[in-house]
Amino acid sequence: xxxxxxxxxxxxxxxxxxxxxxxxxxxxxxxxxxxxxxxxxxxxxxxxxxxxxxxxxxxxxxxxxxxxxxxxxxxxxxxxxxxxxxxxxxxxxxxxxxxxxxxxxxxxxxxxxxxxxxxxxxxxxxxxxxxxxxxxxxxxxxxxxxxxxxxxxxxxxxxxxxxxxxxxxxxxxxxxxxxxxxxxxxxxxxxxxxxxxxxxxxxxxxxxxxxxxxxxxxxxxxxxxxxxxxxxxxxxxxxxxxxxxxxxxxxxxxxxxxxxxxxxxxxxxxxxxxxxxxxxxxxxxxxxxxxxxxxxxxxxxxxxxxxxxxxxxxxxxxxxxxxxxxxxxxxxxxx
Length: 335
Fold this sequence. Notes:
The radius of gyration is 19 Å and the shape is globular. Strand 10 (198-202) and strand 11 form a beta hairpin. It has 3 helices and 19 strands. Helices cover 4% and strands 34% of the residues.
């Protein structure tokens, strides 16, 4: 049976984070003239070599922090960074039950004296562990480009737990102020499949970063990967790995709101390795119903849409973040 593209949006609790569980589409609908919610680009859309070029010289965190254009740099190294934040300040916020499950971990770090560790209990609601909110340092609207880089690590349970039902975790959201589910939103999440690969979307999940191949199939990862929805495999797709620091790097170039002239790109890098691109979406239509209220915030979080706190989600799981950087200029991969 060929898949339907389906967007399941659920109104969320404390953080108002709404997402789609995933999207499918029937081959029979390819000739349908009706409007579909997910935004795609043609399979033959591509960027030139110069446009795709990214810095590949490895640098340590201190050097990257002092690079040109850096607006925010967080090492998660000292207890002072973990003092609970008060909205709208940057910093650590609690889980849905008021408990701070984001903590300083001095034993596991990509660099420096520690990292941000989130603990995900076996029983917990959607806002399982809290989140880290970081001001980007400026407002990014039409005609601007921003870069975000961080490193993340996952426990084995984080990748294999079923979480008690049809849900999955987020990694990061770029957004405006308190609005994490809106037209001004770019989110990265684990796919709603057991395969274990990341996906990106905007507009609460209705705008998926996929490439329509016009044959009932989609490229769910692009660039240096050739990841087909109907053939998810570790050769052609970037798959999450446990117990290793992975660098996630993003470039978002905003054209004009509502016009197909923006570009969203994302890369990953394993320790000591160069970037490999997994999202390449040129000629994309980014929306903003309130220009001036533009991209200005990065949120790191393991939020899980519609997670049922009464159901056993699996063994206690952990994810760690380190070396968060926001810049107006390209950021080299981590050494």
